[in-house]
Structures
1.
Amino acid sequence: MALLVLKFGGTSVADLERIRAAAAHIKREIDQGNQCAVVVSAMGDQTDRLVSWTREAAPLHDAREYDVVVSTGEQVTCGLLSIILQDMGIPARSWLGWQLPVHTDDAHGAARIVDIETDQLKTRLKNGEVAVVPGFQGLGPDGRVTTLGRGGSDTSAVALAAALGADRCDIYTDVDGIYTGDPRIVPQARRLDKISYEEMLETASLGAKVLQTRSVQLAMVHQVRLLVRSSFEPADAQHEDGTQAGTLVCDEDEIVEQQVVSGIAYTKDEAKVTLIGVQDKPGVAARVFGPLADANINVDMIVQNVSGDGKTTDLTFTVSDADLDRALEVLKDVKAEIGYEDLRGATDIVKVSVIGIGMRSHAGVASQMFKAMADKGINIEAISTSEIKISVLIDAAYAELAVRTLHSLYGLDNA
Amino acid sequence: MALLVLKFGGTSVADLERIRAAAAHIKREIDQGNQCAVVVSAMGDQTDRLVSWTREAAPLHDAREYDVVVSTGEQVTCGLLSIILQDMGIPARSWLGWQLPVHTDDAHGAARIVDIETDQLKTRLKNGEVAVVPGFQGLGPDGRVTTLGRGGSDTSAVALAAALGADRCDIYTDVDGIYTGDPRIVPQARRLDKISYEEMLETASLGAKVLQTRSVQLAMVHQVRLLVRSSFEPADAQHEDGTQAGTLVCDEDEIVEQQVVSGIAYTKDEAKVTLIGVQDKPGVAARVFGPLADANINVDMIVQNVSGDGKTTDLTFTVSDADLDRALEVLKDVKAEIGYEDLRGATDIVKVSVIGIGMRSHAGVASQMFKAMADKGINIEAISTSEIKISVLIDAAYAELAVRTLHSLYGLDNA
């Protein structure tokens, strides 16, 4: 018998049929004697609809009223799932953010959970009642509804699992786990049984939409074991030879057979900015990146080429492609202060990353990577590394080739 | 300077354009120095959509979870209107049912308001802030969301006006007031400047959809003056020679020139049941109407004809046409107990009513009515009266003729 938090995202509760499928998964856990608290997202595109209404009402609007409007999406799912569970003979009730309450700070629209009161909930769960909690919402210190920012339902689930001391937090989504590579590009990609928090963090920050970065951080801090699994798999699916459904995101100590590289990720949401003929003197980096930081533009990889004459240099860096136009505007505005000859932006690039906690203890992962790229004639435009990740920026045309090459290089291909 | 409660129904907040129009009406009142608390319904058909989801989830469902789902409709409008008001430079904030709170009893899905806490609200209103309150919802003694049943937003507005001691409660809707007759049938119908609570009650219970019966009762008890007006009229419309917008529903003492008859109403939602050859002996009425009452079927007009032989009689009565099939079933089931020869049901009838508080002091209103009907060859199948109302049941084919005849008879036609 285990205490579980089950989280169902937007596609897993898109309509009443999908909510019924979610209820069947919950029923299976209850039938196995588990205690279940459930966190739900809004149905399908309801949140987008509500958000667009607030924008249409006024482009700049009171975040407190935005929260009043947008939090209703999860509330609706919450009531409907409770009704469906009851109809299946499972005692269930909804617990809205202000009812538990889920205490957050006062950053309306992007609040952080401070504390979740769970005394009542624990008693109910012990009595076999399912608690259905709307994700993404809480109660601010001002006594008003807060929302956690987009994707916040994962965070709600992890925070609730931490507060309850749950044995596991099952994240039901539209994919059946975390893969060694994007199966659309690498047909040989394998689903991982386990992945460490650190690896998952790198994967999430590289654009994998499966889990929100913040929820993984929270899970790591509180040591909440996350199981990423598909709500589209039948609730009564039998897994051959006892293999588990989904991928467990857990502490690395729980992963017995650690591989050097656990996966290859890539992201297309990158744009490259190049400043040509920048004066090569102290303080120039501050004059370039200061204004970008002021404009809230996040800079990722940075490469500075030493110039031939020693007086000017070329400076290349990447930003999110959504920020490219704004970044170019900012740099045009401060051209006089920086002093550069030319400014170029490009989006035909991708970032390909190799991720694995094994890298910490294995040398040579990077050099293998660079050699493989060179062998395929792929030019590396920039490199960035962390303890458990190596990312390279390359021409978008070579994205698939690079991902497949690296997937094979590190022995990730399916046997 | 006055303290006003403004209520905007579903068609008056159907979309963002309509919500903006509502905001313009609120702005006019604020600009005139009034304090405004606003009660809103859900946008257009949102409530129907939410209700149908709960039914689809499970035909028989927990009313507490129904309330969780359905109350979100008003919450959305509430946030959006607050955003739009703020955008127009008017300080505004939403106050959800659980935040004020609006205390109700525990009859989830059909709760009654017990008390509304208004201390905070009064302070805010005095400071020129508009309070936007979702209609139709409250907080039960169980600490959970309640809803007041369909059409409850009018009741919310009146209860809030009573709690605040408001000078007036303005009900914005899609008609511009209460008419002496249905303008679609009687082109000469006039809009009334004032109508008494009692008359409005009779009109509402006769199927006029403008105000909910319960909200009029509440207004009468608490002496809340209601102004029924159109949100579709431009906010800055000028009324010639100072005539007011809409119809004021108020105490009869406030109506200086009382007319004998204030209006002619009719309702098609009637069905007639006739039991032929019923044994004419004591206790038969109980045996007929007891089972109907047990089945929650409301019986309106009753006529019993004395039979020729003194042993059997025919019994005719009306029920709502929605209840007809059920009423016939119930009576078939107890045929042996009642002892009747034949049972007939018909829906081709209408109830036409003459309403006016002046009737109390004027004799002859009924006899005038019966004579006028006879002159037009209209057969009266049943009659029911109250202190301020006379209703007759007639063949549906004569509905328009009867309404126009009576409208003219009592001097209601436009000059």
Note: The longest strand of chain B covers residues 270-279.
2.
Amino acid sequence: MKYSYEGLFNFTTNVLVNMGFSHADSMECAKVFLAAETRGFATHGVIRLGDYYKLWEAGRINTSPQVKIVHQSPSTAVVDGDGTIGMIPAKFSMKLAIEKAKQAGTGWVATRNSCNFGISGYYAMMALEHDMIGITMTNASPLVAPTFSAEAMLGTNPIAIAIPAKNQPPFVADFATTPINRGKFTIAAKKGVQLGHGFAQDAEGNPSTDPTVLEKGGSMLPLGGDREHGSHKGYCLGSVVDIFSAVLSGANFGPFVPPMVAYLPLLDQKVGDGLGHFFGAMRIDAFQDGEHFKLMMDKWIGTFRNAKPANGCERVMIPGDQERESEARTAIEGISLIPQVESDLQTIAKRFNMDWIG
Amino acid sequence: MKYSYEGLFNFTTNVLVNMGFSHADSMECAKVFLAAETRGFATHGVIRLGDYYKLWEAGRINTSPQVKIVHQSPSTAVVDGDGTIGMIPAKFSMKLAIEKAKQAGTGWVATRNSCNFGISGYYAMMALEHDMIGITMTNASPLVAPTFSAEAMLGTNPIAIAIPAKNQPPFVADFATTPINRGKFTIAAKKGVQLGHGFAQDAEGNPSTDPTVLEKGGSMLPLGGDREHGSHKGYCLGSVVDIFSAVLSGANFGPFVPPMVAYLPLLDQKVGDGLGHFFGAMRIDAFQDGEHFKLMMDKWIGTFRNAKPANGCERVMIPGDQERESEARTAIEGISLIPQVESDLQTIAKRFNMDWIG
């Protein structure tokens, strides 16, 4: 079924208020959940409210956090998220990176003791209105095997980078460091079809096209797929995200990242606090005249958009185009939820004696 | 044939001195050429002396550059390389990033009006002895087609990231944002074998396994290969390298990057000066206690190194291991040059009335 932005936004806010988050925090988190829905990342949208609900039930989420700066220099800081939902320390940290950049030219914040924060692109884009480039990374529960490894050691560890232009829309890249996301495994499994090659391996590290292989001890492969096609580069990228997000901040890294789902127990060994994120803001005019830079970005975007399309392709896209088209579409058509998500949210509504949407 | 480090280092230095570079600059450049040879990147080693020789002959390289800072903030700067060989402004810029980081916690330098600088990893690693993380990017002549494009718009645009550890060797990632480098095309063409799938396309954007396709108007594909396997993520990465290196600095971006080879004419249209690089240095103790960070990096490296190997694989490697093994090997065995490179260098030696090595 289709839902209006307002209906789903208010519902999400109310669920979070019922868990014990402040109304202001709940609205700020709801904006990020809804941005995932409108920008075409439904796997990071309200479907995750169910996971958060279960973590909250298990007492594994702090709803009254004292997010704070624990270390800083003119252009850097480390933030402690106090074990709350990721959106709260993420917004705090990105705002801090922007403030640092106003003074020092750039700002870089590593955040620990946090949890899943939704879509990375949301925070990177916060820099745009300040005429800054925004950068966001986060680590995540281990699902991805390094090149030559049988074991999953890294999350899908996304990177987002937002760069302002003048008359063109901004350049917004937001991508996991794996060829596909976990959602594609679920969809293939539901349809009863095999995955393509280059996406997964079994528990022994043999290539696999079984969409249920992750539940059988298998792993996702890094961007590149196999060594011949550059999987060691995807492994490098995922590792850098992990180290910047977790070793610089003092969070759990690699296989020590705590599970996002309450049905998995917390790990015996911890090497830091919660999971970690990394945020950057670079003031354009700390490098170039701001107007000149934005005109050159218009030129960059126009040049790439006008490249001759490959045989059978309609046009060359700019990072961010697909998400903007999704936003335009959902603004007219509303936001679709699949029946399983509707049912999960209805269960939460009942638990809190809330009305279901609409 | 095999050559000693000293022999090849002195020869390289003397070639550059004969072109008109100062002795000090020539030695600094020779270190980077030789680092490519010892670290296993022969495609970026002394083979490039031939390209530089021809650029010099054509009057397209400034051998008495005034490299200078043209804009700065506490944590940033833009450097103008004055149209010289890339190693000179690259070292200047990375040193400046390190100095900025000492004061502001991090330092970020965008460099324009430069040329090919050899291996990215060299500059990223300059940060290690200062207990900093080093980052290097550069754009390059267009060879790579964005997803859905028939035209090459981006270079192989590498990224290097060096992260210090305590008792473990450092984490050093240094990779092009394509599945393979151009050298693999040349080798396949010489052997008369086809490339694998996912590396190249023809002039119309159809998949191609022809190793000579680049000379026929074809393009390399970004990391990921095709859209299904995430080539749009490789395209994002290559684009970010291009924008940070060239739009932030005021260099030529994308298809406007000037050719590295003197037999190609300079382009009619320029959108900036020369090609561009981007350098970053982050002081570890601007985030964490330095000792704690390095111990945690030891733990990170040890954990990943001890992951169970995939079926048929010997061990899981850490970014930088392969290059260190190459350094150890060449230190014992000497540096191999293929006959074509030997012959090119002998031609240069004759031109300058220099003795050939050994």
Note: Chain B has three domains: 1-63+333-358, 65-178+228-319, 180-220.
